[in-house]
């Protein structure tokens, strides 16, 4: 048990560090290759911060731990919105200026509904996985189109600030890109082994471990990015990261895991976890479009409500662990 806990801690630390280096290297490489900054913000930074979720879920699925893979994907979305957006908004209200973000908000709602429809039969088949990956490819195409034509969007300015803050030569960027990718794979293997061992020791499902410990751990890059961005008043980058991560988790992370190994889905995933994920996404949509009367921002009150929901949800999940033990 102690070895498993140590593996999880070491895996998470290495995972977060390697993901940060991977994203920095990828963003700098893309900039050297002439990619528009808005596209870097939407694709490289937004999707790249979900590299830990992708690595962990793919590893879990290949090892025959579907609950961990699915719990990590959905749990990360819940953590991103309820914990990270909530905590960040309490520090400073998050204003929404980017038109791209206002398009991504309803898109994430639609994608979440598609994901829910796939859960109804109690299984995510390989076909379901490939459908999700196909939709992800289409979303990537749309993101590239938006990034090329939307040069004046505030998200591009926020991404430019981040790239300027971490300048590096092309050779260095490629080195960090490769090192980050390799360490992502190694650390995800370590984390999955430790998480499964803990679940077995406690006698709980790997789904619960994926929804809590692993989801929180793999969401640390988004948390670090959000806190750093709010200090720099880069509000659009905060939500851009969260929405990009949400789209990536819903489509690529879960889709790849199902394509590798069909995932059996417990009923509570649909009625408890997916329902909460949808509710949080709808809440963020309402806040982002200013329907709460707070001028298109996530206010401190909104943040406190989101954080309270996360605490209640996580507390409930941990109570099931205690009762099972």
Automatic annotation (TrEMBL):
Keywords: Membrane, Transmembrane, Transmembrane helix. GO terms for molecular function: calcium channel activity; calcium, potassium:sodium antiporter activity. InterPro entries: K/Na/Ca-exchanger, NaCa_Exmemb, NCX_ion-bd_dom_sf. Residues 4-144, 173-317 form the Sodium/calcium exchanger membrane region domain. Its main location: membrane. It is found in: Membrane. It is a multi-pass membrane protein. PANTHER family: INNER MEMBRANE PROTEIN YRBG, SODIUM/POTASSIUM/CALCIUM EXCHANGER. NCBIfam families: calcium/sodium antiporter (TIGR00367). This is Cation:H+ antiporter.
């Amino acid at each position: 048990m102690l070895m498993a806990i140590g593996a999880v801690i070491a895996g998470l630390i290495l995972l977060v560090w390697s993901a940060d280096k991977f994203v920095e290297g990828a963003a700098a490489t893309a900039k050297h290759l002439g990619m528009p900054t808005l596209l870097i913000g939407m694709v490289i930074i937004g999707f790249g911060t979900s590299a830990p979720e992708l690595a962990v879920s793919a590893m879990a699925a290949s090892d025959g731990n579907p609950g961990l893979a699915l719990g990590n994907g959905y749990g990360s979305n819940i953590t991103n919105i309820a914990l990270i957006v909530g905590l960040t908004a309490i520090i400073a209200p998050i204003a929404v200026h980017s038109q791209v973000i206002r398009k991504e908000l309803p898109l994430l709602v639609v994608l979440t509904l598609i994901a829910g429809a796939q859960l109804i039969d109690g299984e995510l088949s390989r076909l379901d996985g490939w459908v999700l990956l196909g939709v992800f490819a289409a979303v990537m195409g749309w993101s590239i189109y938006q990034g090329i034509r939307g040069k004046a969007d505030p998200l591009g300015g926020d991404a430019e600030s981040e790239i300027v803050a971490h300048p590096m030569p092309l050779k260095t960027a490629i080195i960090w890109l490769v090192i980050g990718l390799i360490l992502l794979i190694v650390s995800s293997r370590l984390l999955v082994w430790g998480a499964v061992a803990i679940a077995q020791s406690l006698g709980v499902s790997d789904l619960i471990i994926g929804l809590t410990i692993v989801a929180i751990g793999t969401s640390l890059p988004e948390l670090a990015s959000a806190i750093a961005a709010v200090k720099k008043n880069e509000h659009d980058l905060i939500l851009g990261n969260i929405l990009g991560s949400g789209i990536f988790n819903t489509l690529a992370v879960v889709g790849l895991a199902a394509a590798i190994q069909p995932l059996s889905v417990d009923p509570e995933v649909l009625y408890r976890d997916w329902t909460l994920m949808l509710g949080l996404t709808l809440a963020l949509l309402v806040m982002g479009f200013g329907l709460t009367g707070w001028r298109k921002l996530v206010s401190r009150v909104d943040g406190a409500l989101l954080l309270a929901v996360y605490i209640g949800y996580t507390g409930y999940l941990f109570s099931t662990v205690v009762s099972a033990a």
